Description:
alpha+beta, 50% helix, single chain, 3 domains, Heat Shock Protein 90, 17% strand
Amino acid sequence: MKALAEAQEERLIVALIEDDMASLIRSFLIDPKLIPPLDPRLGAHVSVAGVVPVTLPTSAKDLSEGAHEIIVDDQEIHVAVAPFGDTKIFRVYNFSRYERSFKQVVDALMTGTGAFALLTIWLAFGLSGLLVRQVAGFARQVEALRLGGSASINPGKYDEAEVIELVAAFNDYHSRITDMIEREKEFTGNVSHELRTPLTAIKTSSELLEQDASIGLKSRARLRQINRAADNMIELVNALLLFAREESAVDTDPVHLCHVIETALAPFSERLADKGVSVALCIDRDLQVKANRSALAIVLSNLVDNATRYTDRGLIRFSYGDGTLRIEDTGPGIPTDALSHVFERFYRADSVAGSTRGFGIGLSIVKNICDWHGWPVELDSGPNKGTRVSLRLPLAAPNQHGMPPN
């Protein structure tokens, strides 16, 4: 900005010099008596503007026509050169005082502009800081709400209209989500409670029938299946009730992993036998994990169902190590482009053929339960390479270790 001002100043001085020289030459032509004497050192007539005498150096005689700026006695001097007959006219101007005043004005303007810019930045920073602090406060209240704070956020704590509108919109959204969750929890609790009565009747009836000596071996096997299915359904109902009360994530006990896996495998034993698929349970029978038994039963039941459904030959292998349960099968595998979608609800890979395909719900349930309990679950698969599910389950005690064979 300062350089621009100085350039503008120089153009103004040149314009003044040109006007003055034109007027001076006209006056000399009108009245030759006004022509200053010839300076033999320069071979030109020298005229000085103003009352301060200035003596040009001899080197000035080589100046071309036009306006020039030279240094004389440590002062910036402007010299205008114009032809006049057979000689030249040198006109000397000393704008030092004007330039000093101009420089002072420019410096004052620069200082004022800098101060104004700093004030503007300070005000902008202050206002933005106020807004940011209010948004940060709003974020802290949202976090407190997530951790179980008050039912809504008080918009009266904020001054900015935009933040107040944001708080109001959030409160409305939070209220609707809370109502929806409460309705779902109430519905889940009611349905689960109502299912207990018929399940109890089924289990009691099957137990009474087993005591009937007239029932054959094949019928007894069917009754045991019904009994196991009723037990599984009761566990599922209990788990749903716990989910509805949000207690399942903290209601954990030591659980024998082998027993839970065997319970999950029992309903599929005939299907596996018909297919000729063997099961390898490579886990120490004394190994215990810390988990909610009902939730783990649901997860394993869905994972076993999935492995059984898509494995037509070979085996299903269970192993535990480094805090991870691994379930591996020799099925056809999952296409690479479908891996990122397998935990989505109702998703089914189109390229997995067969009439035994499920509804795309089981793995979604597994993912939701695992997320709720903090059990990271991963799935690794590929075409014609089978599928491996890895489920992180903490040991019940630090001195217990699984011993899966290699």
